[in-house]
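Changelog note: in this version the structure field was regenerated for every chain. One regenerated record is shown below for reference.
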Amino acid sequence: MKNNTYTKKLTAYSALTTGLLSLGNSIEAQIIYTDLDPDLFFNATEEPWIDISPLDLNNDGISDFSLILSNQYTSAPAYEDDSRIALIINGYNSNKVAGSLQTNTFAFSTYYGSFITAMCDAHVASALNTGDLISPSLDFEKNNVAWQYSWGGVCDFDGGWDDTGDKYAGLKMIVEGENYYGWVRMNLHIGSFGISELIIKDYAYQSAPNTPIPAGATNSCDTPSPLGVTAITSNSAKIKWLPVEGAAKYLLRYRKAGTSGWINKTIPAPNMSKTIAGLDCNANYIYQIKCICTDGSISAFSNLQSFTTAACRIGDMNSDSALYINIYPNPAQNNLFIDADGFNSDKLKIDVYNIIGESIKTIVIENADQIQLDISDMQNGMYTINISDEQQSISQKFVKQ
């Protein structure tokens, strides 16, 4: 079962949400996700040329934010800033939106022909991409312009929203003095003659206070379950995990215990393991795994896991004893599967030789600990397979029948 909570209406799940919030940090963080079906569509093409949509992020019946789409034009002078098309995102009460302060300096002429220099500034809501982390480190403000064109261009602002596809606004909601982080996904299009269209698609927030959330995360993508570490040597180890349904790729991060810098590896699905090398001998390492699914959703990281590399020995760094391959089935008819461990590089070269040493097949692979080799076009007989990176190699014989 998926670890996400869905809803199709703005007012649903308020009782569940209130219960989760009351538990605070005593529960495991869960992302509460709201899918708007159908999407909310605004165009502000009729008087009063403005559409306002309240956003109840935690579905408790109280509006937390407002999304304002404005197509207002007047005959006022440009510097009065009465004419504009804009997307405005405001927080009610103490709620805020992630962005940054932008300042424009402009000059305009007065009725008497003189010029006046003025400044126009606003806190501009940032258009976040999928996976961008919404956390306390961002700059949050209550009143925000996401995109604005003012008559004459004197107070134009853009947080990266116009015609850039689906983007996310980072949200900070305050409930009973605690900060809850979330996002809303929108698509903004500014057409001819200033006609603007806004689509609001979905939103989500972390149920545990002070917990960051990646933009677009819904927990519809399950967190990978670690299966442990095998083939541990003094300088390498193979980390394994269970597959996640709908996985596009996995993100593995690891570091030596007591250090702060993570080393990140990306492993394309359907691979379910990764051999990491270049480790220190007789050292403790910690690691976590998360998944990015084909629908763009991102799981949380798995719980911290640990392992210890083998004891230090003279020659470990230059010894082939760390290398390991397992070939199966052997004999084989159509496909040969190869498990490879201990190489220092993610890029491996595979050479197949016949019994007299002639090269029959060569392939190069990356980021794969399990290799599938098509041998259906090869004649029956005995062959040698050699796997190598730029520093090391290992060989093994197999039979094609």
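Spot check on this record: The two ends are 43 Å apart (CA to CA). The first strand starts at residue 31 and ends at 42.
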